[in-house]
Queue: 2 jobs
Job 1
Amino acid sequence: MSSLRPFCLTAWLAAPAAALLLLTPVSLAPVQAQATQATPAPQPAASPASTSPSQTTVAATSHEQRGVTARAIDKVKQVAKSAGDIFSRVPCLTPKGGSKTMGSLPHVAGKLAAGKPVVIVAFGSSSTAGYGASSPDFNYPNRLAAQLRRQYPTADITVINAGVGGEDAPEMMKRLQKEVIDVHPDLVIWQVGTNAVLRNLDPGDTAKMVEDGISRIQAAGGADIVLVDPQYSPAVNQRKESAGKMVHLLGKVAELRHVGIFPRFEVMRDWHENQSIPVESFVIADGLHMNDWGYACFAQLLGDDIIRSVGQIKLGVNVPADVRTYRPM
């Protein structure tokens, strides 16, 4: 994989931001009273006995719906605030230059552009499950879902977290059918390779299994796919040669199979080496897993790419799925 100038960053906050609440989109249109053209004749007040059970039920339901709408508005505000809070000290910046190789995302982008329901499966290990985050709301799949729902508030967006700690390609392949293919996703984000490096597995064997998995996903319905390579962290860097081979081979698989690649290793290295962010500001004390800020910036950059793809679709730049494109990071 070529050298990259990754996306963004923001430092670990002293206190975690408010828990991110994920919403099922609700209609927030206000109920407007209609002006009357003439004053109607006064009617006798209805006694409690004259109110039918159905009228009482309708009134109660209406009141409940207004309450749900009000709560939904409050949650939307909380989501937006917490997203800003996590980046208040160190923002998740776009790169100053360079580009990254990324497969186009026409399937998921086309559905979002058309207002159709979207299903995204986040497939991977502990980085996907969210180990190291202070709350499940701060893992990257939930962060990504919140970002996309803010961008497309009327869309029906489902992000499924299919991360299982400690796994790599051999274990993931066993659940690929049930947890990915059978769900009929529009986008699969496959984070893989870190545990293979830590377990001294052959990077070539991992790459071959991932390629086979991609072929199965593509044959089952043509979902967009984005691979996520290992993280830049002290534990991974102790096996520098193996990590380098894994990053290179996953990039080659993405190129051969015409799928997306999120170069997490290069993105995180850029945080440290080019943006001068201490490693402990985005990795927890175990030297391996990301913290709230790391997951938040990772999700932000993924979401930015999806949103950019939707914008291309709306502008008529509908790049075929089998054509690799270069897009700014």
Note: The CA atoms of residues 151 and 199 lie 39 Å apart.
Job 2
Amino acid sequence: MPIEHAAVRVVQKPWGVGDLRPWSNIDGSRGAIGELWFERADESAPTPALLLKLLFTSQPLSIQVHPDDTFARAMGMPNGKSEAWYILAAQPDAQIGAGLKHQITAQQLRTSIQDGSIAELLRWRSVAAGDVIYIPAGTIHAIGAGIVLAEIQQRSDATFRLYDYGRQRELHEDNSVAAAHPWPLRTLGNSAAVAANRTTLVASKHFVLERVELPEGSSWALLAEPETWMLILNGHAAIGLAAASTGEAIFIGGGRNSVEVGHNGLSALIAYPASRPIDSLLQSLDEQPGKLTHPATHSVPQFAGSAEART
């Protein structure tokens, strides 16, 4: 099964930045870079179900909402868009908006889009490196300035804007009102330990997002799903024959694969389409053959894909 360095697509945005270090050495001096998309290196490969991105913000993004699968398919799209954010870096005053301060009616939501008061209704929260925010489809949300984050999402570009800070781009009033869940997001995330080296950050209807911390010089078997993404947060490792370090992403096409960790250890995000964590995802090769490293002993919260559900 393929193991490949993900190709990187550079997306310039007016709210982006020029310096992406330490996450990338790509030069943004000729135009602010807002997003790096990680994609299959083989352009003829099947389209993945998930999209992994890095976002860099120097200005706030628009307030927006994504439709769920039912709404998206009714509009002729293949699926909706639920997503999760992992904060890589944040300035001291950085904030994200997720859900509303209180529930409002559809007509009140429409009025708030028309007069711009939706920005005051959104619940803003301070963020710091290591925070995790799950945004189910239908959640009204926004990303503020001064943030670097990793995003894993259903592969979709279905986005409806409610407010755009005067940038003169089109707003999508009717679709936003129809798609949005105009109420608070009950919690931002709920991590659970799966094993000594693994933490499940999000287990949703559409994907699982984990963080792994592997000690220096250790050896592992990764029993991957047919679509598995790994983003290196810190350190370096060889995944199969692919060497990767901070800011790089690896696509793993399933099967049993070796992970050899370098002398600085390895911190990484792993994401795959599933509704619950795979107990046998990582097996230590430094222990007895066939022995799983600390199989799951904690229940993992399940997310129902609605802003009204537990997150």
Note: The first strand starts at residue 3 and ends at 5.
